[in-house]
Fold this protein.
Amino acid sequence: MANVSAVKQSLPPEDSKSHFIPYCQHSIDDDEIQEVVNTLKSNWLTTGPRTLQFEREFAGYIGCEYAIAVSSCTAGLHLALSAYGIKSGDEVITTPLTFCATAEVIEYQLAKPVFVDIDADSFNIDSQLIEEKITPRTKAIMPVHYGGIPCDLSQIYEIADRHGLKVIEDAAHAAGTIYQNRKVGSLGHPTVFSFYPTKNMTTVEGGIITTNDAEIADKLKVLSLHGISKDAWKRYSNQGQWYYEIHQLGYKYNFSDLQAALGIHQLKKLDAFNTVREQYARLYYNALSEIPCLGVPKWYDHYFDFLQGQGFKNCWHLFVLMLDLEGLSIDRAEFIHELKARGIGTSVHFIPLHLQPYYANKYGYKKGDFPVAEDVYSRIISLPLYPKLTKEELNHIITVLQELVNEFQR
Ligand SMILES: *Cc1c(COP(=O)(O)O)cnc(C)c1O
């Protein structure tokens, strides 16, 4: 295939050993590339047969009734709030330790994001603290499965049921995560996954909403494409294919067959990708437990000790390192700088949202409001973790971490 090799030649050359290890890299192979080429040569590019196939296969993988592919996870989260009629004056409870998208979509609906501090072990929303933030205006809870660690869903669902609240799960990090023997996304409430290039599988841009609720699934589908009513087509089918009615304001959030071309193949590899992530996480975990001043979230201890045998699975979107700042003469930003100077890319997940000027200015949030999230934020570094990373690179990263501790330990 001349076209395929032309595409490959235009990619940067595979690096030699003297390279910078990036924080993140996607894994796209010839099968994805071939499917994209085939799609481009077909007579359908946007939402069509490949999107339907991808939705069916993703629903099968998760074990849910419905899956609606959309242009991004952000779009999916927004649609779920819109489908539930979340509006001005409403409050939605979520975590401050998340990507801006989670709270941004609440703002799109002119509702108020109400943050609840995180649990110090899992970095997920602390379900013990949710109830004290519920008011008559509270309409929904949006838990985020931080780094692939499942939230305390049974507790969250129990609280939501008791107070008549909707639950919308931000599962951007959780493709393949298992909670009490069930995949995240299979429990029924709308759950939204991301296929952004940094995530466990990618369609470049894209997301998908899973649910077991037929009525919500139907609403989401209609809202994702301008609010064009499918029922109107059925009712007035004698009017022909060109006829449609708009009964509500919709959005342009649909997914394309070009994205599905990638997604169909990425989904087939997702479990294999996650297995490599888990192997690497274990290597990091074992090595870091030997190095002073370098901790990890306590949830990892529980996971490697017993949670795996209890029907839990982390999809290992992130491997988070926690610095013991008291034992080091440099802070987290300086530690990241030193890693970068030694050729290792890292990231931080996340700057707590209540400290972002937009939310601080609008709602009067200030430092000290969510002490656990703030303390965690000051210590965390996300290490490179992806299938394309080699064992040699991973061992090199561990060696460099050991060297940095030797140099900067107090
Ligand atoms: C990446 C991410 C999103 C947004 O995903 P997009 O597909 O880029 O819209 C939402 N929430 C969290 C926690 C994320 O990490």
Remarks:
- The two ends are 59 Å apart (CA to CA).
- The first strand starts at residue 66 and ends at 70.
- The pocket of pyridoxal-5'-phosphate is lined by residues 72-74, 98-99, 101-102, 144, 170, 172-173, 194, 196, 207 (CB under 6 Å).
